[in-house]
Design brief:
CPA2_transporter, 722 residues, Rhopdopsin 7-helix transmembrane proteins, transport, 77% helix, 1% strand, 2 strands, 2 domains, mainly alpha, Na+/H+ antiporter like fold, 29 helices
């Protein structure tokens, strides 16, 4: 054990776990910091990978040898590639083929312009950049196709993240952009597969054979395997069992088979995983079932490892000449022009939308991020791209992805925000708001209408005039303090119940635990526990979320589910259940003690004494039952009040999450706001009253003092009135 702590490299598992821990912590911290400026977490993961590599921390003596020893890199890279395979399978699952078919008249022409022009410019740039390839003996066709595919890709997952963060995912621009990116990615992945084929063999003829194998693989998977799998899935779907264990295992077997086949064909395994994702049936709940279980572990665990592995291969110190930096600037400009201009013009011709809408489409399609870095890493693995070109394209992908969100906000959101209407024409503004409210399922669009519903509703909502509803960090701090204090109150009441149980115990060691020292320790533990279970608020909460009565609430469905689960179980249900258990144990202890002190007295021969002593014994038994009944009543009243007053807020939180995507009219939102504030008032009453019930029901001393206080207050009021 001591030797292992001194040198964890003696265990490959310990080394890997240490690398995973450091990677996840740094990626999450950087992702959270960048989220304050509306950047996707992939930017934080890219920067974290660069920090781990030779550009920053690699220059520290002993860093690479201790944290990233050479012997551990193959294992780390293998796990990262496994994550890439599952991620590509997830992308195949997420592609909505129905939307692509529905919008094909608009999507196909724009997709053609978005592929042909960037790939053509990428081929021209490849001829220029071949001199930076450090003399790698690689096919010019493979090098040209890799550079061209790097120009042609748009980051499908990053696009979805950006659109969701800006509430544009369900807007026409969001639907059209996602469909366009999906078609584009399918075509460019095929181009990349062809490039991998040309790089795998020595001659061009072998590359052509591999390309034909690739086309045959696609035909077999789409036109043979997919219909067979659909028939099997339809059989289980008729029996309402489409998420059957055998169907799910079959999906993963198809993933492994596809990845293995393309890897053996000389193409990267990612392509087979992507095609396998496209072959999964879209009917029923199978896609949603698989996506929910794959997304979290892939995005939060495997992708940071992949980018850390990518950062270890990124050496920005190689960009050390003015010529390279000048070429990098030209590369960024060419990549942006190659995407923005053709997409903007094609969208304008096909949709006749305003110019700001078409330009926003071009800006969105210029997003790179995850997918382009995957392409670059594959090129490095196949010895197609040199470290210099790899570093240049990593900088390009980071800059273009980083610039997408602020440019889109300035260009699109400010022009297309129905809540920012001029006050010069209130009637026209109100009409526009109502029309927009009928066309959009967005809580933010309901807010102006809600404010017209009357002063009472506006006062009861209580949140609109609060600075914490407009400043995000104040929003997070306020909710964190509220929920932490609420958690602390409930668990402190539970601690008081445990303390009463310890005091009533016949065990001396238990009674010795009822000291001020242990009470302070318990309250400190509860405070730490309250902070720990509510720490996700710092990440999840934001200003003006969708479809919630609060203007400061969780920003995603997953965050809302986590928050609701915490509020329901960790703040209310578990403490109340523990109070019930320890309260009943307290009553049991008191009965055992009183049973010992009320043993029947030995009966003597005197009849009168017998009668008197029997009566005395019965009197003590009745007094014991009266104390038991009073203690039980106090305990039941406390639990009933806590349950009745707290249960509505639990229902409201789950209702808010289950109706996350449901359309809500202005009247429905107004009613929900009113009910929510009533529920919140009941919750505060429960937090205060339960403590007084616990204290006043604990004995005659507290109760008599309370009644004396109330009598003195009434007496003072009467005297003042006289």
């Amino acid at each position: 054990m001591v030797v292992l702590l001194e040198n964890p490299h003696k265990s490959e598992l310990a080394t890997f776990l240490m690398q995973v821990f450091i990677t996840l912590i740094v990626c999450k911290i950087l992702g959270k910091i960048l989220s304050f400026i509306r950047q996707p977490q992939v930017i934080g993961q890219i920067i974290a990978g660069i920090i781990f590599g030779p550009t920053v921390l690699g220059n520290i003596p002993g860093w690479s040898d201790y944290i990233w020893p050479t012997s551990s890199l193959p294992v780390f890279q293998l796990i990262a590639n496994l994550g890439l395979i599952f991620f590509m399978f997830f992308l195949g699952l997420e592609l909505n083929l129905t939307e692509i078919k529905a919008n094909w008249k608009t999507t196909v022409p724009v997709a053609c312009s978005s592929i042909i022009v960037p790939v053509g410019i990428g081929c021209a740039v490849a001829v220029w950049f071949h001199e930076f390839n450090d003399g790698l003996l690689v096919s010019k066709a493979a090098f040209m196709l890799f550079i061209a595919s790097g120009f042609g890709f748009s980051a499908f997952p990053v696009l979805a993240t950006l659109l969701n963060a800006m509430n544009l995912l369900n807007e026409p621009i969001g639907i059209q952009t996602i469909s366009l990116a999906a078609v584009e990615d399918i075509v460019v992945w095929i181009i990349l597969a062809v490039a991998s084929a040309f790089s795998s063999g020595g001659s061009a003829l072998q590359g052509v054979y591999t390309m034909l194998y690739t086309l045959a693989f696609i035909i077999v998977m789409i036109f043979i395997i997919r219909p067979i799998f659909n028939r099997i899935h339809t059989y289980y779907l008729r029996h309402d069992d489409d998420c059957n264990l055998y169907v799910v295992v079959g999906c993963f077997l198809l993933l492994v088979l596809g990845a293995f086949t393309t890897e053996m064909m000389g193409i990267h395994a990612f392509f087979g995983a992507f095609i396998a994702g496209l072959c999964i049936p879209r009917k029923g709940e199978l896609i949603e079932f698989l996506s929910l279980r794959i997304e979290l572990i892939i995005v939060e665990f495997f992708l940071p490892l992949y980018f850390a592995n990518s950062g270890l291969n990124t050496r920005l110190t190689l960009l050390n000449t003015g010529r390279i930096w000048w070429s990098l600037c030209v590369l960024i400009i060419l990549a942006s022009v190659a995407k923005i201009v053709p997409v903007t013009l094609a969208t304008r011709l096909c949709t006749r939308k305003p110019w700001y809408y078409c330009t926003s489409m071009g800006i969105l399609m210029n997003t790179r991020g995850i997918v382009q870095l995957i392409v670059l890493n594959i090129g490095v693995e196949l010895n197609i791209l040199s470290p210099v070109i790899f570093a240049m394209f990593v900088v390009m992908a980071t800059v273009l992805t980083f610039s997408t969100s602020p440019i889109l906000y300035l260009l699109y959101r400010r022009k297309h925000d129905p809540t920012k209407l001029e006050d010069s024409n209130n009637a026209q503004s109100l009409q526009l708001i109502l029309e927009e409210e009928n066309n959009r399922n967005d809580h933010q669009d309901d807010v102006p209408t809600v404010e017209l519903d009357g002063l009472t509703t506006r006062m009861l909502s209580g949140w609109t005039a609060n600075l914490t509803n407009s400043i995000e960090w104040l929003c997070k701090i306020r909710i964190f303090i509220v929920l932490t204090s609420r958690t602390f109150v409930m668990w402190t009441l539970m601690l008081a119940t445990v303390d009463r149980w310890l005091l009533s115990s016949s065990n001396v060691h238990y009674r010795h635990l009822c000291t001020l020292k242990y009470t302070r320790r318990g309250m400190f533990i509860i405070l730490f526990f309250s902070i720990l279970i509510n720490i996700d608020i710092i990440y999840c909460y934001e200003v003006d979320p969708i479809n919630t009565p609060l203007k400061c609430d969780s920003n995603t469905e997953l965050c809302r589910f986590i928050t609701d689960f915490t509020i329901a179980f960790m703040i209310y249900i578990i403490p109340i259940c523990l109070m019930i258990i320890f309260g009943l144990l307290t009553i049991k202890n008191i009965r055992q003690i009183q049973r010992i002190h009320t043993q029947p007295i030995v009966i003597v021969t005197n009849i009168g004494d017998n009668k008197s002593r029997v009566r005395f014994t019965n009197y003590r038994t009745l007094r014991t039952k009266k104390i038991d009944r009073r203690l039980l009543q106090m305990h039941l009243i406390q639990i009933i009040i806590l349950t009745i007053l707290n249960f509505p807020i639990v229902i409201q939180r789950f209702y808010s999450t289950l109706t996350f995507y449901n359309y809500k009219s202005s009247l429905q939102v107004s009613i929900e706001n009113l009910l929510f504030n009533i529920v919140l008032l009941l919750n505060y009453v429960a937090s205060a009253s339960s403590f007084y019930i616990f204290t006043l029901g604990g004995g005659d001393t507290f109760r008599n003092a309370f009644w004396d206080l109330m009598k003195s207050i009434i007496h003072c009021i009467r005297c003042e009135n006289m």
